[in-house]
Amino acid sequence: MPQLLFISGEPCTGKSLLGSYLADERGYIHIDAERDHGVDFDRVGIHQEWEGFLRTRQGHTFVRAIARLGKPIILDWGMRMNFLSIVPPLQGAGMEAWWLCADRALARIAFIKREEKKPERERIPVSRFDAQMDAIEEHWPQIQEIFGQNMLQGLRPDGSQRPAAELWGEISAALNELGRI
User: DSSP for the chain?
Assistant: First the structure.
């Protein structure tokens, strides 16, 4: 089976950056679950399977569908915490799940900087960042239980983004050590 990665985590920690890097440099199919109402699922022909998985939590059915694409996959999603329960079925079906995190204050600054680069009508209000981080903090014990050792800091201590190649280096070293890559 090709390598299948599920990347989630806090806002502005490099989820999509890592997905783009793996697509450009490593031949992965990158699916950004938040992009344009699921356009990436449509592009690879598995939107129906994704929607079915979200309804049923049948991880094996969804993983078989993406494995049929015949290439390694990275699926990134900054999911709402009410979807946290989808991760164990994906893990049980063979996807490697990783959580990218950061100091909340640094991630908030990175979020504001990112949004300021967008046209005003496309900006996400910082209040949504705060609400998402509040929910993450509330669910932190569950997140730690689900992702275990598969957690990485997405930002450097100075608040700058860690390069995708660096994040991938840590993930691939851990998977290699476990014989999963």
Answer: ---EEEEEESTTSSHHHHHHHHHHHH-PEEEETTGGGTHHHHHHT-HHHHHHHHHH--HHHHHHHHHTT-S-EEEE----GGGGGGHHHHHHTT-EEEEEE--HHHHHHHHHHHHHTS-GGGPPPHHHHHHHHHHHHHTHHHHHHHHTT-EEE-B-TTSPBPPHHHHHHHHHHHHHHTT--
